[in-house]
ABC transporter
Amino acid sequence: MSQTSDAKASAEAAQAAASPAAEEPIIFLDDISVVFKTRTGSLLNPNRVTAVNHLTLKLHRGETLGIVGESGCGKSTTANVMCGLQTPTSGQVFFKGENVTKRSAEQRRHIGRVISVVFQDPATALNARMSVADQLLDPMRVHKVGTPQEQAARVRELIGMVGLPSSVLDALPGQLSGGQRQRVAIARALSLSPDAIIADEPTSALDVSVRAQILNLLMDLKRELQLSMVFISHDIQTVRYISDQIVVMNKGQAVERGKASEVFDNPQDDYTKLLLGAAPSLLHPDPSLLS
Ligand SMILES: Nc1ncnc2c1ncn2[C@@H]1O[C@H](COP(=O)(O)OP(=O)(O)OP(=O)(O)O)[C@@H](O)[C@H]1O
């Protein structure tokens, strides 16, 4: 199934490449694999773990691509390849048509290709000793974006965009709730007006009631800013709620892909069916929380 799924994606990619009029995907992972050296590995592959195995996927402008699969299936490694934190062992990474396979996240920023990441735990993603205002100013200072006045105005704009009062700007992360901290992390991710955002399990560390609020915030921002987003989760119901397109991963491979509604209403792969069958009892006992 995965080969069929990836063959389909490769055929689409070839077709898109042949048509100059077709809009380039923001991110295009072309048949990437990531193999880590380890002390253990498997019987067939000693001292090696294949975290991602011949994966092809595309993120189009304004789209939310959901990546779903169990722990260890390669989601975070895929996210790291997308944002330049991990170089693939094989395969190529394109950013708006440009081959950036060998470029680090830092090098990509210098050529104006920005992908921001929102991590699972805002407590560790934010600097505990920096005020909220400084956390938001930091990326603009580091990348020398705007005058001090423009940066200050942008900070006020960002904090409003994520639904927080400007009174939190002087607070330290430890003085905020988990949901507020994740809002700050999202504001920080938006500060350089990224081409795409990768949200890697952004709600998993939060209380169930707060999860729905953060999901709704991401949906609102996506609409208002026409964000292109990769949303990664082991929770298939959360992915279903927010995504336009879905890739289901198992053991480093894409086992199913397609429009979210089609994948969920008519899953073809046994693993997807298993995830869907297991889903209702996993994290959202009360579906009204997501409405
Ligand atoms: N730096 C590394 N060195 C060795 N093995 C690694 C490394 N990073 C990830 N792995 C292994 O690669 C596989 C995929 O890991 P990855 O973190 O991408 O999965 P995941 O789906 O994001 O899981 P989780 O949801 O638990 O984070 C796992 O078997 C993991 O142990």
In short: Residues 23-267 form a domain with the Rossmann fold fold (CATH 3.40.50.300). DSSP finds eleven helices and ten strands in the chain. The longest strand covers residues 27-41. The mean pLDDT is 86.
